[in-house]
Amino acid sequence: MKLQRRQFLRGTGVALALPWMESVAAVSKPPLRYACVYFSNGVEPAHWWAKGTGESMEIGPGLAPMMPHRKDMLFIRGLYNQAAVASSSPHLGRMPNMLSGATVSLNPALIQVGTTFDQVLSQRIGAKTAVPSLVLGIEPNELRLEDGLSMIYGSAISWASPNKPATKEIYPSRTFDLLTGDGSGRKLDRSVLDAVLKDSHGLKPKISGGDRRKLDEYLESIRDIERRIDRANKEERIEGWKPTLAQPDMPRPGEQLPQNVPDHMRLMLDLIVLAFRMDKTRIVTLMLNNDLSQMNFGFLKGVKGALHLDLTHNGKAPAAEAMYLRTNQFHVEQFAYLVGRMKEIDEGGQSLLDSSMLMGCSNLFDGDAHSAEQMPILLCGRGNGTLHPGRVADYMDKGDDNRRACSLYLSLMDRMGVTLDRFGDTDKRLVDL
Questions:
Q1: In Å, what is the CA distance from 286 to each residue of 40, 67, 289, 398?
Q2: Cβ atoms of residues 320 and 44 within 8 Å
């Protein structure tokens, strides 16, 4: 008898579904995950290159930490955002739109970019997990002005709407609580929710049509919390695949914000792995620095206490270039750490990396020149068999319409099960992934 994934007991006129049984269930693939690890202010172009394939791939000094992972890496060259190139603002017009391709409003009275593709994914498929998307950072949101524009532009690569950045979490302890709680970041009493919903039924006839719409929106948010609680309480799944972790395998981080930058970054990267292993979310962005970052890299050997912004705007002075290279390598080290950890985790015949798409990137190419004609992008993982890494994908000479970053985003969204006719500045998918 051929056993199906879902079995039934059949009698006269009835069919009762059996519980999920591991021995008769067809093994399904793990879900596909996406994560973006961003670092600010670009790279040193002379050190950012790759050629060849697989283990024989040659890579530039800026990519040295990726040496053990060359077979897992797609080096993408030549992608850009048209709106970033066209912007007269060399930083804030070329950073918050990195994942949307939208035009950044340079009107000081209007904050507007575009919904980023990670948040499109969150809105479309985020309900499948307790946390629709995880938006992380190391540096806090900045509220100061830079060239007359709000530095909220420089503090967020993930935008929930054209006018509102997604809430960025920089505390490891709060991120841990978000992943191990009900997904809302706080404990909620189900009886309180029931009472709120009951009272709302008596209120509706007494209010105007406009207020009823507002109430419906509010109640939908309550229902979303209910769904999260119900999802968090479920211990069984009908799918063949199950997360490799049911409980955290790391201790809760301390309450205080880490003061050591490398430790802070590693904690956040470990929390991404935890989130994916527990299937708490499938969509993550992590900002290693804000744009125009004031992060001090004096903790790196050979870097003499300089701020990141100064290191990346150095006029090509030889000593400063060497320090800039070291900060590039440090950022790539963080990405390589995430790749390495995910390669080691088996999910039933394939690694966590195999079922993921990890993007390491910056918004500028040459940070000193503020060049946005191309962006440094690494794409790691196999996307459940839909990506073919271990090579270079060079789009630089394929014409502007065939090297839009938003073509990459459309292609990644397709793989995540979200298909759009158009996104940002293009309606084309990226070929040769």
A1: 11, 22, 9, 30
A2: no
Please identify which residue in the block is written with the tokens 């190419």.
Answer: 365
pLDDT above 70 coverage of the chain, percent: 83
Q: Locate tokens 């090579």: which residue? A: 391
* Tokens, residue 173: 């302890």
Distance of CA 398 to the CA centre of its chain: 27
25-72 residue pLDDT tens: 445 789 999 999 999 989 989 999 999 999 999 999 999 999 999 999
| Tokens 């209010």 sit on residue | 207
Q: Which residues pair with 76 in a beta bridge?
A: 377, 393
DSSP state of 141: P
The 3 state secondary structure assigned to 168-214 is: CECCHHHHHHHHHCCCCCCCCCHHHHHHHHHHHHHHHHHCCHHHHHH
Nearest CA-CA partner of 265 in 243, 293, 306: 293
Distances (CA, A) of 291 to 31, 65, 275, 309, 404: 32, 23, 26, 8, 22
Domains of the chain with CATH codes: 31-185+246-415 (3.40.720)
The verdict on pTM exceeding 0.70 is yes
For 392, phi and psi rounded to 5 degrees? -105, 130
For position 190, what pLDDT does the model report?
Answer: 53
- On the 0-12 / 13-18 / 19+ scale of CB atoms within 10 A, 203 is exposed
Strand partners, 81: none
